[in-house]
Amino acid sequence: MSGGAGDGAPGSMLAQPLRPPSPGRAAAYVGLFLLGALVAAAGALVQAAWFPGGLLLALAAAVGTFLGGSYATRSRGGAMAPAAGWIVTVILLTSSRPEGDFLFGAGGGSYLFLFGGMALAVICATVGAMRQPRDGSARLGK
Fold first, then answer.
1. Closest listed residue to residue 55, CA positions, set 106, 110, 107
2. How many structural domains comprise the chain?
3. pLDDT digit string (tens) for 36-63?
4. Which of 48, 75, 85, 116 could form a disulfide with 36 if both were Cys (CB 3.0 to 4.6 A apart)?
5. Is residue 139 part of a domain?
6. What pLDDT was estimated at residue 86?
7. 84 located within any domain
8. How far apart are CA 65 and CA 58, in angstroms?
9. Domain-located, residue 88
10. pLDDT value at residue 30
């Protein structure tokens, strides 16, 4: 069974060198990063306003963004780009300023939003759409 896709043979995808993403794909990742940041900022405001419904709405929006990015780009990177934007924004919003102001309170809902969103980002990146080999219509995993 040599020469099949995935075994490292010269014609397989594993033997191909890595290429930088196309300009369109790079722009999509940047846009997804910014969308993830926007969803995180909106979720930070909504999750505390209407507890527990706001928390569920904020986490559902995060999951939709992560999975939507994965399906739009057909890759795990499409889920990781908005997840990275979400995590960076949430971390920046949790840091306190010298004046003592910060956006998140010390309640349980805030911690559920923080850690739940991070766990959901990992789950969505793991479960999200992946590229399939283009060898034909044969069954995968022979």
1. 110
2. 1
3. 999 999 998 888 777 788 889 999 999 9
4. 85
5. no
6. 92
7. yes
8. 11
9. yes
10. 94
pLDDT under 50 in the chain at which residues? 1-6
Q: 126 near 70, Cβ under 8 Å? A: no
Establish if 82 belongs to a structural domain.
Answer: yes
- Token reading at 72: 């739009």
Q: Residue 29 is part of which domain span?
A: 21-127
* Whole-number pLDDT of residue 38: 95
Which pLDDT belongs to residue 137?
Answer: 60
